[in-house]
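Review form for a predicted model. The reviewer records the input and the model, then writes brief findings.
Reviewer: anonymous (R2)
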Amino acid sequence: MESPWFRVADGLVRLPSRWEAPVLLHDNKSRNRQGGQQFLMRELPLISVVIPCLNRAHFLVPTIESVLQQGYPHIECIVVDGGSTDGTLEVLKRYGGRIKWVSEPDNGHADAINKGWRMSKGEILAWLNADDVWAVPDAVSKAVEYLQAHPEVDVVYGDCGAIDAEGNLVSMSYLHEWDLGYAVEFCDHCIPQPAAFIRREILEKVGWLDVKFVSKKDHELWLRIGLAGNIRHIPIVLANARACPGYMAQQGDITAAACVALTKKFSAYLMSRMTSKGRKNGPSPMPIFEGWTGLGRMGAIGNLFLLMRFEPRLWTRPTQLTYLIT
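Model under review:
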């Protein structure tokens, strides 16, 4: 299949089917000399990636370099620093105008990411923690290729490797195909965040990251997007995430508490959605919810079938919402 054509500031680029580095084939001046020859082109979307950072100078350079070394030519890189004191600012200053950055106190990790997204101009958004790296040179190109071929998809994610402090690949990160019911029932994040690319439109629809979550903030976002949009996986390594001793993902007490808080929030959110739909479409289902906890597991399963008219996306597994309410 012939490779797609795109318009950039300097003229035309062809992105080969294997998504190698883009090759400039015609510049604007030569095109004008050709008498205004018309080409079939698609606009190349801007990708904005936010890197939240706090005292991670020793890992920050590989993260930024993995963005700047992408073959895709239209990337906005924004580093949001929380007021580091370890030399991070010196690292950022060395990049000059190649990146955007701000350094000021914030209200935590999610707040820093949200701040960067609000600053950004991209149609497609992502974030890399200050020790994650994109696969070089074509992670972004492959994600854009998929999203442009599938306009109905709101989030695309790929596979993700796990690397140690020295950057050595030690394993592949855990991965489960996206399934909203599974994600709800097992509080399973399913999606490796460094390998995910999100359309701005869906984020503006469902809202930014919830700053109350220190852990599981990405999973909470995937649930909201999963209810409102489409999430798809491509079996290609797009990123690597740092896996070092002491990282939050390895702190079971923090993760467990976040799972409880997330599940409570999601169930309340789901009930409010169904109550709203009930007011529009008929009697409210809220009295059924109010009696569920006293019905026991089997009684609750019986009433769960009433939910099919409200949230059919959750019905990939027959008992998952019982997990929320019993």
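Findings: The chain has three domains: 5-42, 47-250, 254-325.
Further findings: Residues 254-325 form one domain.
Recommendation: see findings above.
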